[in-house]
Amino acid sequence: MSDREVRARKKRKGALEKGAAELPSTPGKSSSHKHSDSELEDDSASTSEPSATAKVTFLIIFVALAITVGAVVIALRSAAPTIEIADETVLDDIQESIIFPQDEHELESENYATERDKSNDLQQSIENSNGNGDKRNFNTDSTQELQSSQHIVLETTSADTPHYFDTTQPGDGTEVTSEHTEEIAQSTTEPEVPSSTESVTLAQTAPLKQEETAQGASQDATSASEGSPPLSDMPTSTLETMQVKPDFPEEESAITNEYDEKIQDDLRDSEELLEKFPERALQRFKEILQAHPLSPRASYGKAQALEKLAELKKSNAMLEQAIQAYAEVMNLPQVPDELYLKAGNRSVDRMRFRGMLTRALKLQSEMSAKFPKNVGIKNQMAVSFLMIGRGQQAADLLEQVLKQDGNSGFAKVHYGFILKTERNDLPGAIKYMSEGIATREPGVIDGRFYFHLGDALARTGQSEKALTIYKEGVKEGLFYSVYQRSLYNIDGLKAQPWWDAKETSYAAAIRELERNWVDIKNEALSLMNDKGFQPESENLRDSGDWKQFEIYARGRRIEKNCRLAPKTCALIGRMPDAAGCKRGQVKFSLMHPGTHVWAHTGPTNCRLRAHLGLVVPPRVRIRVANETREWKEGKVLVFDDSFEHEVWHEGDRFRLVLIVDFWHPELTAAQKASLSPI
After folding, report:
1. Pairing state of beta strands 498-499 and 534-535?
2. Which portions of this protein are annotated as coiled-coil regions (predicted)?
3. Which of 400, 662, 633, 360 is nearest to 510 (CA)?
4. What stretch of H or E contains 670?
5. Structure pTM?
């Protein structure tokens, strides 16, 4: 090889080496490694494989998530007809969103328990609460006697007249299961006192304020008096043992749409279980709703079963869920009008019982807008207004009803009641209550109307007619006798107008009062210029001046007054059946010359009233039933104020006594604990 060729080869080799040296500037290649074409292909493949795997993995995860979300949505939709609520806060949110957001008027102690139920699992048995199971109800059915020992349910209307809802079927909705509830224990507690005292309208509904409670003014400790039963405890229901009955066959067509006609047999079979086997009925209705979620009758049956279970278990949580279930019935598409009214009526009834009076009024307003010609809705709306002390609005509504239906006995008795208790229009009250009672419609044969009609007659000088009304009240089972006309009673208690201290179980306490009468008198005299003495506020005075200074009311100390009368309060505090008497008071009673107190009766037979004479001038006397006595200084008179009593002060200076209410000595400890305050 020539030198020229050698130099040429070296030159080419140098060029190749120079080109190889430039390769590291290419991304992904090592400066010390040369790649063949096949190696480059392998490298390319290896870098593309991770990207493809990630895409496949992401796709699989996305599909799995989509399937999971879809399954959850389907499950939620299928569960919608049978909402199960284990948390009360959630329950309240659901109620407010489905029914009507609002501020509630709460009734004191008006529920199944003194503490709300705390059940977190609706599949567990809910145990009965130890609280009071009393209900604030009224006898409004002409065929029913007032039996305080019965367990009762608010029946807002009756099916006997087209102007009233058919509410003979309790029901409320919630999912709960428990075992062995076939045996129904009947309560022996007395109905609670319904609360407000005044009346009201709807045409232009004033804003409902939060502080307006169903107790109205009578809920305040200072408003309790020696006088008549709470004036605003208005009848809203038939007094009867809690029962859930299936509809009669002739009613089925009115509550059955085409959807339910296809499952008529299943519905009937389930409805037959309601009374004795509510849990089995609930399960059957739930099964029907799984297959037929838009069935109005199955939804209503479910609500009825839940209401029955709430009653049996004394469960507030279940009761509130029952209220929710009735709302669900009303919101269903193509719900028959009759079933809509039945569900609305029961919902209102249970809301009242639970203390949700503002919510009840809003629901009634919606119902009235949907059925403007239905005077039954307006009548019951007037009752709801009365329960929160809104008498003017109740009166306006009742006037509307009487324009639509001048023969409505229910509207007449309630309107007459308002004329007497709020406007002191005695002639008008006599006219409307007399005419209303004469119709004997459901809701008019009630002790309150007989009581106030007789009282109005007596105050207008028609004593014989008043006595006739009282005798009719006894015949109807509304009063124990023409003299004993209390309305919130326990049956079977010894009843006599006057008592001797030895006949009671409080002889020692009475002796203690008499031993300390001078100290008590001096303490009372020191208070006479104090503003704590308040005028009698229940329109019991015919003439004169009568004031009272309370130190205990409804079983509670009035602290500000006890600070002014510490000795008397301390003495009473050592007498548990006086200090703890939830249906009574302890107060100083100051009466000036020229005072006459109308004949009246107290609200309950559950107490005895003791009067300790402190300052007693001549010619001051008290009549209880048909026997009249006089006070003596330092001595105690004991009588049963559920009997008619009347007071005259014909002396020349003030009369001062200490009034002390004791539980009736025949009440048991359990009864004392369970009875609602008056």
Report:
1. unpaired
2. 302-329
3. 662
4. helix 669-674
5. 0.67
